[in-house]
Amino acid sequence: MDRLRQIEMLVRVVEAGSFTRAAAALRVTPSAVSHGIAELEVRLRVRLFHRTTRQLRLTPEGEAAYRRARGIVDGLDAMDGAAATPAHPGTRLEGTLRVGAAIPISRCVVAPRLAPFLCRHPGLRVELLVQNEAQEMHAGGMDLLLRVGPLADSRLVARRMARLRFVACAAPAYLEAAGTPAGPDDLPRHACLVHKPPFAVKPWDEWTFERGGERRRVAVPAALVTDDREALLAAALAGAGVVRVGMFDPGLLASGALRRVLPDWSCPGGPALHALYRRTAEPVPKVAAFLDFFAAALVEFDPEGLTLTPVRR
């Protein structure tokens, strides 16, 4: 097997955390990945992994080999980027750009504004994939990840693109039936719909409100807890209760389908939205072009800043 292919397999296995996920990303069988790693171990004369039925862990020699292998893969990515650098402003970008994003970002921000970007770069093929984890980015060979939430992988460049604004809201039908909260202290008497994002340790059932110099933290009763943001909004739209959520749907407020509660109060603490990509010696032109497009798309998506605050550069 080709040595570079074995090196890529090592990187994918480490970053995916398993032979099976690495094989899926590389579009080969798990046995092919296992065979490639075994050949690399013979070539290097070291054992790369401690293998058990429950865990795949690098040996000290494997750690050193992985660091060198990651450098080689990064170098190849940089070479691809340099090869694609336009020689003059009229040169087209070529190849495939793989972008991972959570469904709300993909559906609400990126896809509705993608047509002009594709027209500007007809030689570029965009693969827009439902992903939100850095590990999946590595395993899937993605160029860029648009992620909401905390960051854990320092090997990647993290460019903050926006901060989500929490909004407390409910359907008009719910407010007509249950009444409108006059202040944060009224919320414990209401049905509340609580988000527990996949990255959160516990449900977000403590809501903070600010007004002027006043700050209130309220523990709300959870009529519903879910990690499915779309289900949370569907329940709110159906009149199930009050929801506090980082929204990618300003149209729900503008249309009146959801109505803000406690409009005199703000909800601090919304999570940040970052674009994650690999460190390379020179910027990869297709990544740089997409970042410019995405920054503009965020401003166009919510020009009044109802649901997020873009980082302006």
Q: How would you describe this structure to a colleague?
A:
The protein has 313 residues and is α/β, with parallel strands linked by helices. The longest helix has 25 residues, at 60-84. The protein starts with a helix and ends with a strand. The strands form four sheets. It has a six-stranded mixed β-sheet. 39% of the residues lie in helices and 25% in strands. It has three domains: 3-82, Orthogonal Bundle (Arc Repressor Mutant, subunit A); 91-162 and 272-306, 3-Layer(aba) Sandwich (D-Maltodextrin-Binding Protein, domain 2); 166-260, Periplasmic binding protein-like II (D-Maltodextrin-Binding Protein, domain 2, 3-Layer(aba) Sandwich).
Topology:
Layout: H1 3-16, H2 19-26, H3 30-44, E1 49-51, E2 56-58, H4 60-84, E3 95-101, H5 103-110, H6 114-120, E4 124-130, H7 134-139, E5 144-148, E6 156-164, E7 166-170, H8 172-178, E8 192-195, E9 206-211, E10 214-219, E11 222-226, H9 229-237, E12 242-246, H10 250-254, E13 259-260, E14 272-278, H11 285-301, E15 308-310
Parallel strand pairs: 3-4, 3-5, 8-11, 8-12
Antiparallel strand pairs: 1-2, 5-14, 6-14, 6-15, 7-12, 7-13, 9-10
Helix pairs in contact: 1-2, 1-3, 1-4, 2-3
Pfam families: HTH_1, LysR_substrate
Protein name: LysR family transcriptional regulator
Organism: Siccirubricoccus deserti
